[in-house]
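User: I want to check something. If I give you two sequences, will you return the structure for each one separately, not as a complex?

Assistant: Yes, each is folded on its own. Here is the first sequence with its structure:
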Amino acid sequence: MAYPDDSRKLHKRATPQIGGVAILAGFLVWIAVELLSGRAVDVKLFYAMAISALGVGAIGFADDQQGLTPSARILMLLVFVGAVIIVDRDFLSVWLNWGSLGPTHIPLWAYVPLLALAAGGVVNSVNMADGQDGVVGSMFAVWSGCLWLVTSGAPADMAGALCVLSLIFLVFNLRGKLFLGDCGSYGVTFVLGLLVTLAHARGQITLETVVVWFFIPVADCLRLLITRPLRGISPFLADRDHFHHRLEEKMGKREGLACYIAAVGLSSVVAAMVPRFALVCVCLLSAFYFSFAWLTDANVARQAKPVPPLPGSDNVVSLNKQDRKRKGAV
């Protein structure tokens, strides 16, 4: 359960944060049905995705329950990157596929660390963006829908399944009935990242398009990793200085969410369907992001109050006295 704390978590009531469990459970059931029915032709791919969904989802679930240190989370993510490569080497590529340039050869000894860095960076960036109802769930639906459009075969079917599951989750999330939780922000992002990696390795998606898709959450993560230490706080300490918070401050909650998702959704679809426009999308996203997140909102950064974690956790919020009495009575 996610409890309101009147500081960073401003929802009105205790809310289940098992949306990621629901999405990943549905995805695993779909994989099991495909394998048992014999329709799964690329068995290694299905096993790799099942291991990822189960393993990385478990990392996020453990983080929801007890709180893991950032170094522990990153280390475990790297372990599963290695496990996926061992199970299915189709995720590896010796080429970086560009839309505006010819393919660039890259040796495997360089590609594997690059893949690990990208996986850890994207997963943690999306996790940091999960601070407002509808933000990450909508991005999941957009990214999986785009993957369904540009891929074929089993990856397209997987992307379609994730898109449907994400839309179902959004029905409850936008009403404030269900939160994603770290299980979802880690597990679902990792699975989508693997599908993006496979699509790139097969030449179905360019690197510029990938940059467009993940631009806003990654840019926001990098900004906070730089600005938080400059303000004298830990880069891993939660606050209300995220991009969605700044849009909410400027426009209002609904309008800010609509603006955020429109920027991600429209640019992602354009970059997926017409890759030659991906660099234009990057320029437009840069102007949109920094106009709200950097240049015009210094007062928001001063007002953003970090929320100190409980001992041994950087995710669990403290309960007020009344909540503690109720828990003690139970």
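And separately, the second sequence with its own structure:
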Amino acid sequence: MERRELIQWLVATAGLPSLAFGRQVHRRPLRRSLSAHVERTLAVATERILPGAAEANVGAFIDKMLADWHTPAERARFLAGLPVLDGRCRARGRPGFVDCSKADQVAVLTALDDEVTALRTAQGGAAANLHWFAMLKYLTVYGWCTSEAGMRALGLYPMAGRYDGCAPV
């Protein structure tokens, strides 16, 4: 086996548990721990980051991940950053983020993404990954990729499971 083939195989097989974990998060009962305004903000922001995120219910996925998986400090950092979206839209002379035009929403998200990229360049990946917007992007992509809609779009659904060749027909 060539080294490149081995690396590709390792990456592919290491990614399967991550996909399986994400699928399980989607299947757990929803724990509504966010306010209605935060839920609407997440729904709009995730849809602008990755079209199809609303269909995949990524906002609820993020809610579950924040409540069940992330530390209280990570959750607080993430939730403290979300009002920045409203503030930036208001600074542009627009209403809050949810009520802004799609173009304004995309402009605000693009500016935040540029800030995270600059932070990554200046201080490295670890510092940038602590930024609340980097968390939002990561959770959006992870939530979409592990949803049924995302897995269908990626050609990964149904996900390979157990094979029992001796099972009765």
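Because they were folded independently, the notes below concern the second chain alone. The radius of gyration is 18 Å. The CA atoms of residues 25 and 80 lie 23 Å apart.
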